[in-house]
Amino acid sequence: MDDLVNDIKEHRVHYLILVIILLIGLSAFWFCRYQKFIQVWVVIFTSLAYVAWGAIHHYLDKDLHFKLMLEYLSTAIFGVIIILSLLLRV
Predict the structure, then answer these.
(1) 66-90 core/surface letters (b: 16 or more CB in 10 A; e: else)
(2) How would you write the pLDDT of the chain (90 residues) with one tens digit per residue?
(3) How many domains does the chain have?
(4) Which long-range contacts (CB under 8 A, 24 or more apart) does 35-40 make?
(5) HEC string of the chain?
(6) Which of 4, 26, 25 is nearest to 15 (CA)?
(7) pTM of the entire structure?
(8) How many other β-carbons are positioned within 10 Å of the β-carbon of residue 60?
(9) What's the Cα-to-Cα distance from 32 to each of 38, 44, 78, rounded to whole Å?
(10) How far apart are the C-alpha atoms of 30 and 42, rounded to whole Å?
(11) Distance, CA of 32 to CA of 77 (rounded, Å)
(12) Which of 4, 21, 35, 55 has its CA 20 to 30 A from that of 46?
């Protein structure tokens, strides 16, 4: 837990950008709450922004690895599947 707190303190700007990305995605999702097609795209673009943020963050921190990117990608895909399955249920 201390490692996470230290990492956040060390990279405040990076994590602030992540929070902004996620808040914009959440706001756009809520704003378009009656347009499911647009919500689908908001979810996809937010997840792509999350993966891009992870790549940039770890590239700048000089610890970018293939396994790490697979983790970000799998988390994003899992999130998209869960949200879209709830959104597009009949």
Answers:
(1) eeeeeebbeebeeebeebeeeeeee
(2) 788 888 888 999 999 999 999 999 999 999 999 999 999 999 999 999 999 999 999 999 999 999 999 999 999 999 999 999 999 986
(3) 1
(4) 36/87, 36/88, 39/87, 40/84, 40/87, 40/88
(5) CHHHHHHHHHCHHHHHHHHHHHHHHHHHHHHCCCCHHHHHHHHHHHHHHHHHHHHHHHHHCCCCCHHHHHHHHHHHHHHHHHHHHHHCCC
(6) 4
(7) 0.91
(8) 11
(9) 7, 14, 22
(10) 10
(11) 21
(12) 4
- Nearest-10 crossing angle of helices 12-31, 2-10: 90
Which residue type is seen at 4? L
The predicted pLDDT at position 3 comes to 86
